[in-house]
Amino acid sequence: MSSAWNVLLVEDDSTVARATEILFRLAGHRLTIAADPTAAYSLLARHRYDVILLDMNFVPGMSSGEEGLACIARIMADDADARVIVITAHSGIRIAVAAMQAGARDFLMKPWRKDDLFAKCAAVIAQTSEGGGSRRDAPRPTASTILGDSAGIEQVRALVRRVGPTAASVCVTGPSGSGRTLVANAIHAASADAAVKAVRIDLRDSEQWQALNAESGTVILRYPDQLAPVAQARLADRLLPGLRCIGIADDVATLSPALRRRLATVEIAIPPLAQRRGDAVILARHFALAAGEAYGRGPVRLSPAAEAMVIVSDWPDEVRGLAAAIERAALLSNDGMIDAAAIRPISSNTGPAPTPALSLNDAERLMIEAALKEHRYNVSRAASALGISRGTLYRRMAQHGL
Ligand SMILES: Nc1ncnc2c1ncn2[C@@H]1O[C@H](COP(=O)(O)OP(=O)(O)OP(=O)(O)O)[C@@H](O)[C@H]1O
Questions:
Q1: Is the Cβ atom of 46 under 6 angstroms away from ligand 1?
Q2: Which positions fall inside the Response regulatory domain (predicted)?
Q3: Measured between alpha carbons, how far is 286 from 298 in angstroms, rounded to an integer?
Q4: Phi and psi for 114 in degrees, rounded to 5?
């Protein structure tokens, strides 16, 4: 196997990022740049890296390292074996210590020297992970990476981190396609039992009930809420105490009290996309890049109008529907750019193009919020991304109370 490293650099200063990329390339390694943590999460959901170099500050004028620390926490929660080296300002020893406590393997002070950087990368790459072996040979950790930065999804991730490692039974609820199976997998991946595959049981299929005879291990139980009351009672009796149960249901209210006690010590409710429209854009960008890679088309992106369409549309089939629509649009795109006209939900009754579900005023506010967030509250950059002047953006922000 090649000894070239596969490195991810999370750095918002494009000049520094490009210079670092050249250094690694000249040394025979491959470095991928993520301009902010959100882009890094999408890359980490698609690829494994030998080492992650993480700048600690992304908001202009901020030097607390808070964003970097939150980023480490999220990376480590998704993959406890991730090898992170943080890059801090010269005076950032306190931040470096906090980063190491949060799971970073090492740190580097700015301005760093090339030899130090390479030596530290080599050292952390040489550390074998607990199970041993190369990270590139291991399966992607990412099958359970939950993307999105809405408060609702942050809450889901926090609950997964808290209850995943326990033996508590958890019921994941939300509309079909919203990511319930993904979250169930993430709960299992965070548990001590993660190395043993969880058994997935579709409770509507009586033949699959066989697997319920297990006395230990983890079972993911799909559709308990679609069982008749008698079958729900039978199921509650069948589940032995040593079995960790993760249920997937539309709503716990439809479970009988006995089954709810056994299956839903904790409920993790995934909000529908319509309640977290900012996540829809993050997911759409991720699905576009993933489709571009899968079909060998290089990076595929969405035009600003296409992103606006994603935000204002209601998505039948939730995230699954959004993923299918973006995959199709990515396939049909000519120049790596998806335009609004190509965005069309795919559903069982293939309907017309999406009807915007929001008023123009709401849509404008969401787009401004998304642009500000994307450009880390740099008003000039957000204004140029939106195609308006700084003055206009300030006026609109005031109108929307932003
Ligand atoms: N927050 C998320 N981040 C990344 N991918 C997501 C997210 N939510 C959903 N997905 C992806 O969307 C698709 C549908 O999600 P999933 O299969 O978990 O839905 P579900 O709610 O279990 O649906 P169903 O119960 O109908 O099968 C999957 O490919 C999943 O990986």
A1: no
A2: 6-125
A3: 13
A4: -55, -45
CA–centroid distance, residue 394 to ligand 1 (Å): 37
Crossing angle of the two packed helices 151-163 and 66-78, in degrees rounded to 10: 50
Two tokens, residue 88: 């801090």
* Closest Cα to atom 9 of ligand 1: 179
Q: Does ligand 1 lie within 6 Å of residue 269's CB atom?
A: no
How wide is the angle at C-alpha 193 spanned by C-alphas 190 and 196, nearest 5°?
115
Residue 180 near ligand 1, beta carbon < 6 Å: yes
- Tell me, what's the ipTM? 0.98
Pocket test for ligand 1, best of 183, 250, 319 (most atoms within 8 A of CB): 319
147 CB less than 6 Å from ligand 1? Answer: yes
Domains of the chain by start residue, with CATH: 6-142 (3.40.50.2300), 151-271 (3.40.50.300), 274-342 (1.10.8.60), 360-399 (1.10.10)
Alpha carbon distance 99, 104 (integer Å): 6
If you take atom 23 of ligand 1, which residue's CA is the nearest one? 177
Report the separation in Å between the CA atom of 31 and the middle of ligand 1, taken as the mean of its atom positions. 29
pLDDT digits 0-9 by tens, 71-124: 999 999 988 889 999 998 766 788 999 999 999 999 999 889 999 999 999 999
Compute the distance between CA of residue 344 and CA of residue 310 in angstroms, rounded to an integer: 9
d(CA 42, CA 201): 29
Ligand 1, atom 29, residue with closest C-alpha = 320
Are 5 and 30 within 8 A, CB to CB? yes
pTM: 0.82
Give the residue-averaged pLDDT of 50-75. Answer: 87
Distance CA 75, CA 55 (A): 14
Place of tokens 């801090």: 88
pLDDT digits (tens, 9 = 90+) for 129-177: 544 444 554 444 446 899 998 999 999 999 999 999 999 999 999 999 9
Ligand 1 site, residue 316, Cβ cutoff 6 A: no
Q: What is the pLDDT of residue 359?
A: 67
Q: Say yes or no to pLDDT of 17 above 70.
A: yes
Angle between helices 93-101 and 66-78 (to 10 degrees): 20
Q: Is the distance from the beta carbon of residue 179 to the nearest atom of ligand 1 less than 6 Å?
A: yes
* Ligand 1 neighbour 175 (Cβ under 6 A): no
* Ligand 1 binding pocket includes 321 (Cβ within 6 Å): no
Report the percent of the chain where pLDDT is more than 70: 90
